[in-house]
Amino acid sequence: MKKNILEKGFSKLCTAKAMAELYEVNFKQVSKYVHATSRGHEAIQIALGLQLLPQDYAFPYYRDDAMLLAFGLEPYDLMLQLLAKKDDPFSGGRTYYSHPSLKDDDKPKIPHQSSATGMQAIPATGVAMGLQYLEKQGLKNSVTSNHVSASFPSGRTEDGLVVCSLGDASVTEGEIAEAFQMAALKQMPILYLVQDNGWDISANEAETRAQNAFEYAQGFHGLEAISIDGANFTESYEALEKVIKTIREERRPFLVHAKVPLLNHHTSGVRMEWYRDDLDDARSRDPYPVLKQQLLDAGFSEKEVESIEDSAKSKVQSDFEKALKAEDPKPEDLFTNDFAPTPITEEKGTRAPEGAEKVVMVDCALFAVEELMKKHKECLLYGQDVGGRLGGVFREAATLAQKFGDDRVFNTPIQEAFIVGSTVGMSAVGLKPIVEVQFADYIWPGLNQLFTEVSRSCYLSNGKWPVSMILRVPIGAYGSGGPYHSSSVESIVTNIRGIKIAYPSNGADLKGLMKAAYYDSNPVVILEHKGLYWSKVPGTKGATSIEPAEDYILPFGKAWVLQEIWKQDNVETLTIVTYGMGVHWAYNASGELNMRDQIEIIDLRTLFPLDEDTIMKSVKKTGKCLVVTEEPSNNSFARALAGKIQEECFKYLDAPVMTIGSENMPAIPLNSTLEETMIPSTEKVKAKIETLLNY
User: Is the dihedral of CA 266, 271, 277, 283 positive or negative?
Assistant: First the structure.
């Protein structure tokens, strides 16, 4: 091995070791915030970090501070995060030590990832899928294309690879299997580095794993795996050099299983002396004396080695003293970068072109996606059964695979977590994925990724990595779908901060909101009621629309007063606030009661952002309010909205704000009579209106 690589490796290892020792000496100062260190893992981390390039992507895990040093970060950078300082370059003091997010021109790109163990594997694999897509389409990566690229033996010089770093305990997570499955199936350019120290927290490998990561990988055909001594820098560097070269040239996945000792605490809050019975054995495998001896064997003098050690300790001490004096965040810093700015703030284009025909709601969405895909090669669509054979179970993707090819419109396995979480990675290479889960009832396995990775990326990366994606979710009860195809989930989704949520009631709104969602840099969930797709449900003809022109865009956060009334002092008046199917129940109920001049109906269109100004203005005018939802109203979005209205409009109200929703049962039954009994209807809304007006 070249002497300069040994010297760099030893310098980084001495720095990481000095940092861990300094944190222990200054435990009272640094233990305010939980942290973990790389002590024992340094050799494999540094061997990898020294070989990555600016066009590569890395997903380190919480013990990878030595890897970050090898990328070129300074101890001071990491200490700013350790102490949660304002100038923490990763998150601005928002997240834990060694939870990096980085977009520097001269370093590998590090999208945000959480500390939920193993969660990063799906976003990382999403990056690899995105890189593969760019290569197949002949597109440049807009995130890295301006950076200096190295020349590779074959392939385009701008093509990077992805590294996903994992602890061995995380490989038992189900989402790891989803990531491995897709990487092997699609042959993606990704390296999974598993650092195996034999421990979870206090549980060891014998208690929790039927096999190690190398053995586990054998079950994924197409995922080549090797096992190495990760405590030996030279062995690690040379093995990784071969693997990385192969991935760069052949564009296929690898797993490297690296056996390492854990020489420090699990975290600063879980001390090794409380439960560890293998510390003597672990210390006998310390990578530090091994690499030190490798330097001496390569011709470095004792004095030169000592100089490297002293220099590292001095640097770490001075950086720590500087970091202690750094500025803390101010209270107002809390309120930045929850969302990236959106260019779509006004309604634009032609909503109802002259001579255009009315189309059903599902086709408005289909045509919107087709127009976007024609215009933007960065746009692609994937999910279960959306490919060419079927085009979606609701025909919502019909003909798209035939028009744009199987690389742009494709089926995934039954992996909702991957469908949702991979969008983090796709967005990180400049793509705009439109994905869907087949039914709202199937969203639950994807919530982990939606909540922890997708929604928090912009905020916890301090604005560097907003996730630009659209998640389509067919929702609601329709035609005796039963307990697994009829659920409403908006109250769950609206409790995830950091995403935007649409719930349109008609095709024109759906098309306009789809366009707005595409041009928004933030994650968007579009809830699309199955019962409105074709207007086959009696009373839903209003969901059909003259198809808006291609240039039509409807911004989020703008409610529609579809039935507006004048203020009337001598007549009982009412505001109905609703969305989706509720709009049709409310409109039909007011018509059948001959009260269109007494009832103002507000179609929210989007549940976040919420047009509170329009709601409150209407309620203050009418004096009474009914919130209509399809969900059971207990503990729901609708009930929370009713409480907000009551709070802000109390002195204007002539009656309590009321809600109507489904019966509070665990699931929607299959039998049509039971389904009808459970969910709201025009008749039920009529009865609630009469109760409220007579209050």
Answer: positive
Tokens describing residue 418: 């991957």
Instruction: Tell me what pLDDT residue 569 has.
Output: 82
Please tell me the number of Cα atoms within 13 Å of 602 on its side-chain side: 24
Confirm whether 35 is a catalytic residue: no
Tell me 332's DSSP state: G
pLDDT at 158: 59
Decide: helix, strand or coil at residue 329: coil
DSSP letter, residue 386: -
Measured distance CA(367)–CA(403) in Å, rounded: 12
Q: How far apart are CA 133 and CA 138, in angstroms?
A: 8
Residue count of the chain: 695
User: What phi, psi does 15 have (nearest 5°)?
Assistant: -65, -45
Q: Residues 241-291: pLDDT tens digits?
A: 999 999 999 999 999 999 999 999 888 889 988 889 899 999 999 999 999
Strand partners for 166 = 194
pLDDT of residue 146: 67
DSSP result, 143-201:
TTTTS-----SSS-TT---EEEEEEGGGGGSHHHHHHHHHHHHHT-SEEEEEEE-SBSS
As a whole-number percent, the residues of the chain with pLDDT over 90 amount to: 91
Of residues 36, 171, 54, 166, the one with CA closest to residue 105:
54
| CA 339/CA 336 separation, integer angstroms | 8
CA angle centred on 619, ends 615 and 622, rounded to 5°? 140
CA distance 65 to 59: 12
Please report the pLDDT score of residue 1 as a whole number.
82
pLDDT less than 70: residues of the chain: 146-158
Q: Is the pTM of this model over 0.85?
A: yes
Q: Exactly one of 35, 257, 265, 485 is catalytic; which is it?
A: 485
